[in-house]
Design goal:
Layout lengths: L1 H29 L5 E6 L10 H11 L13 H9 L4 E8 L4 E8 L2 E6 L4 E4 L4 E3 L9 E5 L3 H16 L2 H6 E6 L5 E5 L5 E5 L4 H19 L4 E5 L7 E4 L2
Organism: Ancylomarina longa
Keywords: Cell cycle, Cell division, Cell membrane, Membrane, Transmembrane, Transmembrane helix
Protein name: FtsQ-type POTRA domain-containing protein
């Protein structure tokens, strides 16, 4: 019985200590004031769409006297919403550190293709449009010609994803041209030929035939013997020699 009472008292003391400690920490935390701003841009070494100064401008516009301000007086959710409006930002997370820093973690949108239509724009990994930047140009696959929103939705986004997710084709195909008949012409990095790909029908089979040509045919004949490769025919690949 005595042991049971002792255990109960021990737990009461522990819970009481934790409650007092938590109240103390919470009180000290609420007394914190901001001393600095720290912006962390994910993948900033490879992409420069969003800079620290872009984010700091938004914060300072919303809270001109942020320095020395209590952490209770700055609405982090509102800041996140404002930063998320930057067209190159995928997600912003705002929080404070115990040393008084206002910390902002930025996840940039990642373009997978550049569309040369009208003023031009990118498509990101989710297939959404994002504007070009005057500060940074992403080295991605380029598509030109007759490119419409319907084409992107129905087939182009799928084709681009296939290319960029295959290590061989990602390094080999640099440009795509789309004509009025929704036929594709591929421009490779290596070799001086153009590839008449035709429509998107059976595109995986076409790339399989093209891969066989590159790895088995061109290894014997050389890369620069032909100026045209035609994949539009069902059971054959037609190569046109240079004149």
């Amino acid at each position: 019985m005595l042991k049971k009472i002792t255990n109960i008292l021990l737990w009461v003391l522990i819970i009481g200590y934790l409650m007092v400690s938590f109240s103390f920490v919470t009180e000290k935390k609420n007394q914190l004031t901001y001393t600095d701003i720290k912006v962390n841009v994910v993948d900033s070494l490879n992409s420069g769409f969003v800079s620290e100064s872009d984010v700091e401008k938004i914060i300072k516009k919303k809270y001109p006297r942020w320095k020395g301000e209590s952490i209770l007086n700055i609405n982090k959710e509102v800041l996140e919403d404002n930063i998320d409006k930057i067209p190159f930002v995928k997600k912003a997370e705002v929080y404070h550190a115990l040393n008084g820093k206002l910390v902002i973690d930025i996840q940039q949108r990642k373009p997978i293709v550049r569309i040369l239509s009208a003023k031009g724009y990118y498509l990101d990994m989710e297939g959404n449009k994002m504007p070009l930047s005057n500060k940074f140009t992403s080295r991605v696959l380029v598509v030109s010609g007759v490119v419409t929103d319907q084409l992107i939705k129905e087939e182009l986004y799928e084709l681009v994803n296939f290319i960029i997710n295959d290590e061989f084709w990602k390094s080999q195909i640099t440009q795509i041209y789309v004509n009025n008949n929704r036929e594709y012409i591929l421009i490779p990095r290596v070799g001086a030929q153009k590839i008449d790909f035709g429509g998107i029908d059976h595109y995986k089979r076409k790339f399989k035939k093209l891969y066989a040509l590159y790895t088995e045919g061109f290894s014997k004949t050389g890369w620069n013997k032909y100026n045209r490769i035609n994949l539009k025919y069902e059971n054959q690949v037609v190569c046109t020699k240079k004149k």
